[in-house]
Amino acid sequence: MQIDVLGTGWNDEYTSVLMLPSDQKRVDTLWMSEAGVVDAFFFVGPGPKDVVMQYTSVTGTPAMPQLFAIAYHQCRWNYRDEEDVYNVDAKFDEHDIPYDVLWLDIDHTDGRKYFTWDRLLFPNPEEMQKKLAAKGRHMVAIVDPHIKRDESYFIHKEASQKGYYVKDATGKDFDGWCWSGSSSYLDVLNPEIRSWWAEKFSYENYIGSTPSLYIWNDMNEPSVFNGPEVSMPRDALHQDDVEHRDLHNAYGYYIHMATSDGLVKRGDGKDRPFVLSRAFFPGSQRYGAIWTGDNSAEWDHLRVSVPMVLTLGLTGISFSGADVGGFFGNSDTELLVRWYQVGAYYPFFRAHAHQDTRRREPWLFGERNTQLMRESIHTRYMFLPYFYTLFREANMTGVPVVRPLWMEFPDDEQTFSNDEAFMVGNSLLVQGIYTEKAKHVSVYLPGDQSWYDIRTGTAYGGGVIHKLEASEDSVPAFQRAGTIVPRKDRFRRSSTQMENDPYTLVIALNSSQAAEGWLYVDDGKSFEFLQGAYIHRHFTYSDGKLKSSNLASTGVRSKKFASECIVERIILLGFSPGPKKALIEPVNEKVDIEPGPLLLRGGWSSSVLTIRKPNVRIADDWTIKIL
Ligand SMILES: *[C@@H]1O[C@H](CO)[C@@H](O)[C@H](O)[C@H]1NC(C)=O
Ligand SMILES: *[C@@H]1O[C@H](CO)[C@@H](O)[C@H](O)[C@H]1NC(C)=O
């Protein structure tokens, strides 16, 4: 490979990278930089996964989220008051829809002074959080980095006295307009200011917060409504007179870092943080989740959400998603339902809406649509064990949770420009539907092996574009032959309540009558997994035997994680002629293999076989022989 550096020392207005028209043999890019020295790293692969691993070895692998954070989030600008919160919470139960997190946007505060509560609307925030926590649910409150210039506001008083704000070019505190009106911005380039900010999240300082409250950093580009390009002037000054132009892109990263640090340090410091950020920079994956910003309730925004999330994954930022339903504008019902069907596979799965939109909680569109949205959310909850395993893979290697098809099939050129379908891990392929009243949907299934429809178990050939009838029930999704996917099929109110539930394993055989898969489990919240407190299994099927073996490192493991969870069902896809019995070892017990019917709720197929109640523990080594 030859790289020609054609010029350096650009001194243009913007940092930008242009992809220039290219012929077959070369791709030209033009890079311009606002300021400073460009450090260039080259990651040589050879495969796409190698590149991400190499990249995240420099910028960091993603943090391991808590389990609740990868379940479903319900957000709106704004849930008005405590009564509204209780109502929405109760409706989820009434309609048998699981959710894990209820979000509060800017208007829960007293005059948009973050870390405060509007006490008329939210007189008892602790009690509110505790009531939701009793059902295993969490809350998220927004804390933005613009600080209201109000002498009676403790954050402003301290920050201005200590000289913690970014200065304007004349050396005065920079004063810009944002949600809080006239605001100043903390100079988070400075580590002292970051630790001061982190302290603000302690339970003593953040009055009304409890251990089930987590944080959302919005507007951290930073947004300045009356600033150039709605941001901070380039000549604003940070510590040591560093101009804003030199660190603009890192501002959001630093506030995200400091907030995440604050959540780690509060209380007994045991729980993993959760912080959603809008702005990001290389390395932001170490501090939490990212969403794709303020989108609109339009079909094209649903479509583009997929390449956006895939691209973020390639930059190490695995934990991302787009606002389900679209932030601006009223989603028509069909679009909303389709959005849930695709969004259920985003790594970060949150519905959100602007205050000017009509209410759009999933039960407001008639029983049929409620059912469709409920099923999408249920599907996500079923696959939580698989998602969590993928989050751990990302945490260890950087390889993203959702992947472009070409990351799994780098030799298949037909995948290169396909960004309407995506892989969840190496095992599931999801094809979105992005048009109104679609009658058909074309799905390209890569490779030379079969794919099994996750609802019906029907097999489809690989290497072919299939023109399928578009179903109202779901977007097409397939399990790749040669894989084993762990699920939890019992429906609960929240992920937390699924903790002790038994597992289902879905085995899809390939043409060599083999398959493999993984399961990672830990306590879902603490850092003890870093000291070995986890279960990591490798499932393999070959020569008629399903084996579960230990993958957890045998090195120093000062902490242990125990689980009594069992496998309650094994679903077999691609077994023909159908075997009748299975032998479980080492207990030497014979169990029946029965036809179908349950695959996904409501799905049925004669090609699906089930081993009921093998009742092997996920923590143990075992073998199941198919007779
Ligand atoms: C995984 O995430 C944790 C934070 O949750 C982090 O401390 C750790 O470095 C990450 N990587 C690995 C390999 O554990
Ligand atoms: C079938 O799956 C197994 C396990 O994933 C794999 O090792 C094998 O190469 C696969 N065979 C084919 C033909 O793809």
From TrEMBL:
The keyword Transmembrane does not apply. It comes from the Eukaryota. GO terms for molecular function: alpha-glucosidase activity. Transmembrane segments: none annotated. GO terms for biological process: carbohydrate metabolic process; N-glycan processing. Keywords: Glycoprotein, Glycosidase, Hydrolase, Signal. Pfam families: Glyco_hydro_31_2nd, Glyco_hydro_31_3rd. Residues 62-390 form the Glycoside hydrolase family 31 TIM barrel domain. InterPro entries: GH, Glyco_hydro_31_AS, Glyco_hydro_31_C, Glyco_hydro_31_CS, Glyco_hydro_31_TIM, Glyco_hydro_b. PROSITE patterns: GLYCOSYL_HYDROL_F31_1 (PS00129), GLYCOSYL_HYDROL_F31_2 (PS00707). The keyword Lyase does not apply. Gene3D superfamilies: Glycosidases (3.20.20.80), glycosyl hydrolase (family 31) (2.60.40.1760), Golgi alpha-mannosidase II (2.60.40.1180). Residues 398-485 form the Glycosyl hydrolase family 31 C-terminal domain. Pathway: Glycan metabolism. Belongs to the glycosyl hydrolase 31 family. This is Probable glucan 1,3-alpha-glucosidase. It comes from Olea europaea subsp. europaea.
